[in-house]
Design goal:
Shape: elongated
Radius of gyration: 20 Å
Largest sheet: none
Order of helices and strands: HHHHHH
Distance between the termini: 68 Å
Number of strands: 0
Length: about 140
C-alpha cells in the first residue's frame, strides 16, 4: 500500500505543476506591465511596492498598474498547505517504516511551508501598495 501512496503523491504533484504552469502563463499581463516600465524607473517601482508609497506620480502609477495586474491567487496558500500536508503524511509514513529517505520528504515539507510564507508576504506587499495607492488617489483630485 505504501508504494501506491508515493505514486499518487507523484501524480498529484504533476497535475498541480500543470495547473500552476497554466496560471503562470495567464500572468503575462503583469509581466507586460513590468516590461513597459522604463528600465531606469524599475528600481523606484520595486521600492514603491516594498514601502507602499512613491514620491514620483509616474512611479506610483506604474506600481499601481503592476499591483492591480498581478492576480491575487487566493488559492495558492491552500495549495501549498495541501502539498505540505501530503508531505507530512509521507514523512510520517517513512519515519514509522524507518526508511532512510525521510530527509527528502522533510525538505519538501519545509519548502512548501516556505512557499506559503513567501506567497503571503508578497501578497501583503501588493495589497499594502494597492491600499496606499487608492487612498492617495482618493484624497487628491485628479488633475
Amino acid at each position: 500500500m505504501t508504494p501506491n501512496l508515493f505514486v499518487l503523491t507523484g501524480l498529484a504533484l504533476v497535475v498541480i505543476g500543470a495547473v500552476v504552469l497554466a496560471v503562470r502563463v495567464r500572468q503575462q499581463t503583469a509581466n507586460a506591465v513590468w516590461r513597459a516600465v522604463d528600465p531606469q524607473k524599475r528600481r523606484a517601482v520595486r521600492r514603491a511596492l516594498r514601502t507602499g508609497e512613491a514620491d514620483d506620480p509616474e512611479v506610483a502609477e506604474a506600481a499601481r498598474a503592476f499591483a492591480t495586474a498581478t492576480p491575487r491567487q487566493r488559492w495558492a496558500p491552500w495549495l501549498y498547505a495541501g502539498l505540505a500536508a501530503m508531505q507530512a503524511l509521507v514523512l510520517t509514513q517513512r519515519i514509522i517504516d524507518r526508511e532512510g529517505r525521510a530527509w527528502f520528504s522533510a525538505a519538501l515539507l519545509v519548502l512548501f511551508v516556505v512557499m506559503i510564507v513567501v506567497h503571503l508576504w508578497w501578497q501583503r506587499k501588493l495589497d499594502r501598495f494597492r491600499v496606499s495607492a487608492e487612498s492617495s488617489s482618493g484624497s487628491h483630485p485628479s488633475s
